[in-house]
Amino acid sequence: DTEVTQTPKHLVMGMTNKKSLKCEQHMGHRAMYWYKQKAKKPPELMFVYSYEKLSINESVPSRFSPECPNSSLLNLHLHALQPEDSALYLCASSPTAQPEDEQFFGPGTRLTVL
Amino acid sequence: AQSVSQHNHHVILSEAASLELGCNYSYGGTVNLFWYVQYPGQHLQLLLKYFSGDPLVKGIKGFEAEFIKSKFSFNLRKPSVQWSDTAEYFCAVYTGNQFYFGTGTSLTVIP
Fold this sequence. Notes:
The complex is a heterodimer. By secondary structure, chain A is mainly β.
């Protein structure tokens, strides 16, 4: 299995809702990433987990809360989001968090905040 | 602040034409460089990467890129494009503790 899967594919939520994005990989990778991509913009790194520990948090607002329950799963909990948070949220994984390791990307979750 | 620039936002070529996509970065230290491709409806995937050694790097599907340190550039090339190369191409730079993507270049190859 060489895929990174993400659920749901699409999510529409109100500003008072609480929802979660899920990411899963079964390649034995020990580094997992969350990116945010706005339309016609490049992906922007949000969080990096290395060996299930948060190693990089790129000054992301606290309304985004990552969680790595085990080496195969990565969640992004969402609460009290703003309309400007609407974007494509990409998950990626790599064997380790070393830069020479290729990152494998999932298809993304298209999030719309109303 | 560090940045990655891709000056060609949209490129249209006929099949068999040669391709060169520009990528420039602004960071004075050691960098690791990547080109990613996103085919329509598919995930981002790695085309090639440079870490050290030969500045001319060969990737998948006939792509290559040349790292020119003095010009802070890492341009992507392919001698003869095919219709199946139609995709979005992203240059990316790792600076040691940060990973940045460029704004992307949309390539359309006309049969």
